[in-house]
């Protein structure tokens, strides 16, 4: 970034253009009319708003996908077909570990975006890398869990309950894996291209995605693991 | 190497699919040769295939939809004629083949005929009506369209290579599980619908974002045209329920490919869970189709009655009411599941209540015509035919919503007649009305009205002659999907129905003739003003066809019926608004990523269907690589110079000024 003679004012103008809602910088009280936010009669929103908004809508649709797998789990929870029950397949310590790892990864992800806002390439990369490593640990722990279950003959083919268990947890794992692929691509892009507007927009989307996966995991942790173990 | 695929996959012993495929391949080759000989490839590639222009994508959606409508209609002709000749006889279609035909008919008509047409209208119209230059995500729009085309291609490949599902358009387990459908038919269904469903979801997200975040200055929600409102409601439903389809099909895929137990009838699987999930998508799906149809009719009634739409706000409210309640009625598709009186009562009442929203709309349309100067142009004929047809379809629907009555008519031809009554009378009539109405906007010349009237009357009469007998047969106890019939008394009604199909065929021929005649006489039918019907919303403010940037200067809307206000002011003051200052415009660059992704999606789907695992992996990696390359590009937009904008806009102003002069000479000005 080349800085001009009035860095603070230039920065302020750029911020407002990119983020007309001035998230976190606006006083409470009655909402003023904001140009560029796409509200009411003010004309089309800025690209940043449009991208973030569209991605939110995608996330909602993705959460509907998860809700179907949750519903299937709720329906088939008791359908063990004479096989193992939930409390026989759950290892709470490992899941607690997974949960901790994923929550911390959300925190590092947020830090990476704080670094992005400060236009620090180094710290963005550092925190994205930390997020990626934590995500990888999460996936490896999940694979270990699945492998151990499979070694005990506990596979999705055994019963409807196990099908819906592996389906729901596996779907989340698949999302995290896809997120890791995305994260790697984003890190390469920052490395090569720096903080272009479209790359910052993609980082916003990636952050939303990663946090959404965390929220879904909270649901899985509670409904599948904690309620299953109890 | 090739998984389950070998030469036996080609149905050499069955002449009908073989000859059909041969003809289709020959025609396709002929078209390709023609394009090559004439040197049209660069034009096609740059201006259509890689285009991210919402209008071009909308037109391509409609073209795909029309082709698939014809394919689905061919299936329908075969079904009606088979039933008419198979009375205490075998008929000319084997049960295996007949079952594939009714499955393909339903799947193609809903997902690859009606859906692309409705999405095409939304794509073409929403940015124009909102006064903006494109949708929120133009390149994703192209990806969405090409994925839908990819699904359509897969379904049609199944005609020649392998077979299609024999399960009905919603593949109910356990019939659709590997144990009972071991062939590739259900797999063709799963991958074709899955891929196109993702395309539809992308378009849905795109249009919701466009409507909620990209309206021109002054275009508040309650100034949006009703078509845009219905497009919003429809796309909200897409975002809410297409993920359910994705999830459900994914579960069935897991059952079939790796032996899981979501829907099996052994080991704790639950087949009724499929039925619930699929209808949680399937019922809102029909409202996804019908809501934009309501929008099209609203625009037409208002334009051709020369009046603002009666009860605009109640129309918006009714649209959103239907949008929400459509999510609460899915169980009426299987009252016979045995969920108990309380559950059936809830869904029976909710299914009846949704008719209230529709009733509000019907009265609004009637009151729009009341006291107006109604012009009986072709779009208006379709619209009035719709009111008559749709009311009867709606009433039989309310009849079916009563659980005890439904127990009698469940899966009978009465049901078949009912949903054809609302889908043909609602969606298909809307598509033809809308095509007639917006054709000049898309292509710059009108369709020849004479043949349009022939097409309407054939479709209207043909529809009733085809489907009234089915209502009667349903009440007499004839169930759906019968390959042969052993009750001779049903014969006469089935013959009448075939006569209806013949009338419908004449209607289709009339549509084709209309298109040919209109293209031949296009100079006579040319729309020079851009406002051929005395329209009221912003798309009529653009020339026909609109420039790729739609509006030289973004309009500033000052009330409901944005363009009507501008037009009245111009006529009153006898001049156009003062010429604005023209600025350069940024437009998105074209991109082959859509067609590239869809190509590998097709390869991936085909590889999965035939268990060619290595090819599936190659296709996935290639698709990901395509996205990375796309993400790496440096140029996202190009600038249209102010002079080019000015030139296009001045031509438009000149034609409008000529219109004003003409009106003045005719003494039509105040």
TrEMBL record, chain A:
GO terms for molecular function: cytochrome-c oxidase activity. InterPro entries: Cyt_c/ubiquinol_Oxase_su3, Cyt_c_oxidase-like_su3, Cyt_c_oxidase_su3-like_sf, Cyt_c_oxidase_su3_a-hlx. It comes from the Bacteria. Residues 53-229 form the Heme-copper oxidase subunit III family profile domain. It is a multi-pass membrane protein. SUPFAM superfamilies: Cytochrome c oxidase subunit III-like. Heterooctamer of two A chains, two B chains, two C chains and two D chains. This is Cytochrome bo(3) ubiquinol oxidase subunit 3. The lineage of its organism: Bacteria, Pseudomonadati, Pseudomonadota, Alphaproteobacteria, Hyphomicrobiales.
From TrEMBL, chain B:
One of its GO terms (cellular component) is plasma membrane. Residues 39-558 form the Cytochrome oxidase subunit I profile domain. It is found in: Cell membrane. Keywords: Cell membrane, Copper, Electron transport, Heme, Iron, Membrane, Metal-binding, Respiratory chain, Transmembrane, Transmembrane helix, Transport. It comes from the Bacteria. GO terms for biological process: aerobic respiration; electron transport coupled proton transport; respiratory electron transport chain. It holds the Pfam family COX1. It is a multi-pass membrane protein. The chain crosses the membrane at residues 16-37, 58-78, 98-122, 143-165, 188-214, 226-252, 316-335, 341-360, 381-402, 422-439, 451-473, 493-517, 612-632. GO terms for molecular function: cytochrome bo3 ubiquinol oxidase activity; cytochrome-c oxidase activity; heme binding; metal ion binding. InterPro entries: Cyt_c_oxase-like_su1_dom, Cyt_c_oxase-like_su1_sf, Cyt_C_Oxase_1, Cyt_c_Oxase_su1_BS. Its main location: membrane. The keyword Zinc does not apply. PANTHER family: CYTOCHROME BO(3) UBIQUINOL OXIDASE SUBUNIT 1, CYTOCHROME C OXIDASE SUBUNIT 1. Belongs to the heme-copper respiratory oxidase family. This is Cytochrome bb3 quinol oxidase subunit 1 apoprotein. It comes from Mycoplana dimorpha.
């Amino acid at each position: 970034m080349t800085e001009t003679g009035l860095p603070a004012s230039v920065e302020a103008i750029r911020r407002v253009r990119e983020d007309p809602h001035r998230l976190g910088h606006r006083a409470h009280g009655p909402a003023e009319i904001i140009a560029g936010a796409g509200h009411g009669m003010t004309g089309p929103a800025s690209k940043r708003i449009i991208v973030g908004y569209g991605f939110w809508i995608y996330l909602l649709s993705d959460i509907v996908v998860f809700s179907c797998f949750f519903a299937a789990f709720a329906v088939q929870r008791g359908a063990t077909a004479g096989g193992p029950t939930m409390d026989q397949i759950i290892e709470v310590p490992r899941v607690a570990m997974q949960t901790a790892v994923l929550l911390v990864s959300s925190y590092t992800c947020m830090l990476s975006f704080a670094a992005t806002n400060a236009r620090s390439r180094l710290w963005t990369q550092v925190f994205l890398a930390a997020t990626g490593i934590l995500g990888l640990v999460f996936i490896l722990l999940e694979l270990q869990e699945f492998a151990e279950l499979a070694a005990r003959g506990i596979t999705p083919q055994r019963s409807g309950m196990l099908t819906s268990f592996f389906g729901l947890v596996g779907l989340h794992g698949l999302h995290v894996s896809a997120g890791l692929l995305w994260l790697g691509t984003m890190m390469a892009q920052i490395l090569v291209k720096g903080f272009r507007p479209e790359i910052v927009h993609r980082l916003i989307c990636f952050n939303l995605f990663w946090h959404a996966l965390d929220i879904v995991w909270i649901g899985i942790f509670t409904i599948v693991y904690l309620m299953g173990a109890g | 190497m090739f998984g389950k695929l070998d030469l036996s996959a080609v149905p050499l012993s069955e002449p009908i699919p073989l000859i059909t495929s041969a003809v289709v391949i020959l025609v396709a080759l002929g078209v390709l040769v023609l394009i090559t000989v004439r040197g049209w490839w660069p034009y096609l590639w740059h201006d259509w295939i890689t285009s991210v222009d919402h209008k071009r994508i909308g037109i391509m959606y409609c073209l795909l939809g029309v082709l698939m409508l014809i394919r689905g209609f061919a299936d329908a002709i075969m079904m009606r004629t088979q039933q008419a000749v198979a009375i205490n006889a075998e008929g000319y279609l084997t049960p295996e083949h007949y079952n594939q035909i009714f499955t393909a008919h339903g799947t193609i008509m809903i997902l690859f005929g009606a859906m692309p047409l409705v999405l095409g209208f939304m794509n073409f119209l929403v940015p124009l009506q909102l006064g903006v230059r494109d949708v929120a995500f133009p390149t994703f729009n192209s990806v969405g369209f090409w994925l839908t085309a990819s699904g359509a291609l897969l379904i049609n490949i199944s005609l020649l290579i392998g077979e299609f599902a024999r399960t009905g358009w919603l593949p109910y387990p356990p019939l659709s599980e590997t144990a009972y459908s071991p062939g590739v038919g259900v797999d063709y269904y799963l991958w074709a619908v899955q891929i196109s469903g993702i395309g539809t979801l992308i378009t849905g997200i795109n249009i919701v974002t466009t409507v909620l975040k990209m309206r021109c200055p002054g275009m508040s929600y309650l100034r949006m045209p009703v078509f845009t409102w219905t497009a919003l409601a429809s796309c909200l439903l897409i975002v809410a329920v297409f993920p359910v389809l994705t999830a459900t099909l994914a579960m069935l895929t897991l059952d079939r490919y790796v032996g899981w137990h979501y829907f099996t009838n052994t080991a704790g699987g639950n087949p009724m869970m499929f039925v619930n999930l699929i209808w949680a998508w399937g019922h809102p799906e029909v409202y996804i189709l019908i809501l934009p149809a309501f929008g099209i009719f609203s625009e037409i009634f208002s334009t051709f009655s020369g009046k603002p739409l009666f009860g605009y706000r109640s129309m918006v409210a009714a649209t959103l009411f239907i949008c929400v309640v459509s999510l609460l009625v899915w169980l009426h598709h299987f009252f016979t599941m045995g969920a108990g009186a309380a559950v059936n009562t809830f869904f029976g009442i909710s299914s009846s209540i949704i008719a209230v929203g529709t009733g509000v709309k019907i009265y609004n349309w009637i009151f729009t015509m009341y006291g107006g100067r109604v012009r009986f142009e072709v779009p208006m004929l379709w619209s009035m035919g719709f009111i008559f047809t749709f009311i009867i379809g709606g009433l039989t629907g309310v009849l079916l919503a009563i659980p005890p009555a439904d127990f009698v008519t469940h899966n009978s031809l009465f049901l078949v007649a009912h949903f054809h009554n609302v889908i043909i009378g609602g969606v298909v009539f809307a598509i033809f009305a809308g095509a007639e109405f917006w054709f000049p906007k898309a292509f710059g010349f009108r369709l020849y009205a004479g043949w349009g009237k022939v097409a309407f009357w054939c479709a209207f009469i043909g529809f009733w002659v085809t489907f009234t007998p089915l209502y009667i047969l349903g009440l007499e106890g004839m169930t759906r999907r019968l390959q042969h019939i052993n009750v001779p008394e049903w014969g006469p009604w089935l013959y009448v129905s075939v006569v209806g199909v013949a009338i419908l065929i004449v209607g289709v021929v009339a549509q084709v003739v209309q298109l040919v005649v209109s293209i031949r006489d296009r100079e006579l039918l040319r729309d020079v003003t851009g406002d051929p019907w005395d329209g009221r919303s912003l798309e009529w403010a653009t020339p026909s066809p609109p420039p790729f940037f739609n509006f030289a200067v973004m309009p500033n809307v000052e009330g409901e019926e944005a363009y009507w206000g501008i037009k009245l002011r111009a006529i009153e003051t006898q001049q156009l608004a003062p010429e604005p200052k023209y600025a350069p415009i940024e437009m998105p660059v074209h991109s082959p990523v859509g067609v590239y992704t869809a190509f590998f999606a097709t390869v991936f789907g085909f590889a999965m269907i035939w268990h060619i695992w290595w090819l599936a992996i190659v296709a996935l990696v290639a698709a990901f690589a395509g996205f990375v390359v796309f993400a790496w590009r440096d140029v996202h937009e190009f600038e249209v110079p102010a002079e080019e904008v000015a030139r296009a806009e001045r031509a438009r102003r000149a034609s409008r000024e000529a219109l004003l002069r003409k009106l003045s000479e005719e003494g039509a000005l105040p």
